[in-house]
Each structure stands twice: as C-alpha cells, then as structure tokens.
Fold this protein.
Amino acid sequence: MTQATEVLFPSSVDEAVAQFGDGAGITVVAGGTIVVPEITYGRLTPSRALMLGGAGLDSIDDDGNTVTVGAGVPVSRLTELADAVPALAQCALNVADIEIRGQATVGGNLCAGHGPDAPRGDLQGAFLALGATARSAGAGGERSEPLEEFLDARDGRLLLDVRFAKPAASAFASLDYPHTHEYTVLAVTGVRTQDGAVRLAATGLADHGRRLPSAEAVAADPEAAGAAALDDVALGDDALASAWYRSRALPVLVRRVLSQLEESS
C-alpha cells in the first residue's frame, strides 16, 4: 500500500525555511512542471511535499544597480528585465512553451538536474554569466554563495533567490530545433560587466550549466575563444543531439555571442 504524501503549505519565507529544515524527505514543488511529470511517470514518490506557491518568493527587486529574483518568480516574468538584461529575457523565452513559462519558476529551472531524455536548467547559463549569487537555506542555516558553488552542491538546499549586478551588455545564442515545445539543445550566454570583463557560460551540457573560463581568457579573439570553450565542458549524447554535434556547435555559439557583445560596445 502506497503511503500518503504529507503536503505542506508555507505562507511565508520563514515558514518555508522552517518546514524545509535540512531537506531530508522533502520534495519541493514550485511550478510543478518538472516534479509533477516525474510523479506521474513513477520516477518520484514524495513522502513530504513542500508547496511554495504561497511562500512569498515571487518578487523581482531592482535597486538600480543590482537585481534580486525570487526563486518562485515564473520564468515568463524574466522578460520584465529585457531592457536591463536582454540575454536573460531571450534565454527565458527559449524555455519550453508559453504555458510552461507561465507556470515554471526560476528556482525550479535553476535547480533542475539533467532530464531523462534532454538537458534541463536552461536559465543556469544566463545566471552563471551574470555572476549571480544564490541565497539558500538548509542544514547549517541560510547562506549566500556564487551560483557555480550552489549548483555543485544544491541537494538539501532550498533556493530562496538569486542576485546579480546589472551588466553593461549581454548576449544570447542557442542551437534550437523548431518545435512547439522548445528544447534547448545547446546555448551560450555572455555579458560584459560594468568594468569591461567578459563572462561566458553554456547550458545543454552533459551536466548542469558551466562557466567558460578558458574562452573568457581569450575573449578578444572569438575564433580562439570558440575553440577554448570545448576545454571547459563535458558534452553528452541524448535524444536531441550527439556530443559530436554539440562539439561542432559550441564554438559557433561562442563566436556569435562575442560578436553581439562587440556590436553593443
């Protein structure tokens, strides 16, 4: 006999943090666009579900220099930042379809692992390129850390928000197949910071999104940067594309992003 799932409905951030605890036995449900299909197909059987819809994590705060995006913000709302960070808005519009974008959340997308048939976590690359800081709760209490570090050790953590400084310019390029329900086969996001540094990151990899430090180091030479990006990632085969195909496409996307950043300078 299947044990009934205990469902928790926090009405504030503090309640959500308290009910999450150290994360043991908790399945977090925000938009549900990943979790619900996993439950439906029997790949996930939660004993306790933490429903974040009413927890107050759905705000976007812009103080003029820094933007803070709550983990419960729907992906579709990132288009509100189109003027400040065009690449983030473009990346958001590249996620699935209009129905999914309206339901899925920023936190759910950032915390998504690799899917059974295709990559997930489309937004990881954009927020990595922006140098975002992740604020989370879990064992040991609340902490803030670079998103790279959070992604490497996100199990047992409840993401609360991500924060980043507005860049001077941003660019996005992706490899897509025409389909009603968009799948990101491979994507690259680049930003030029206010002090002139170039940051690059990619998604559609064998694991979660990754910064491209080798490409960043030679960003002034797009051809060299494109080739160097291959040293920063692991590529895999899945239902969308082979690792070989991605290895041919990644340098092209890096060059496109760098060209866009150059045009905006």
Remarks:
- The CA atoms of residues 10 and 19 lie 8 Å apart.
- Residues 60-263 form a domain with the Uridine Diphospho-n-acetylenolpyruvylglucosamine Reductase; domain 3 fold (CATH 3.30.465.10).
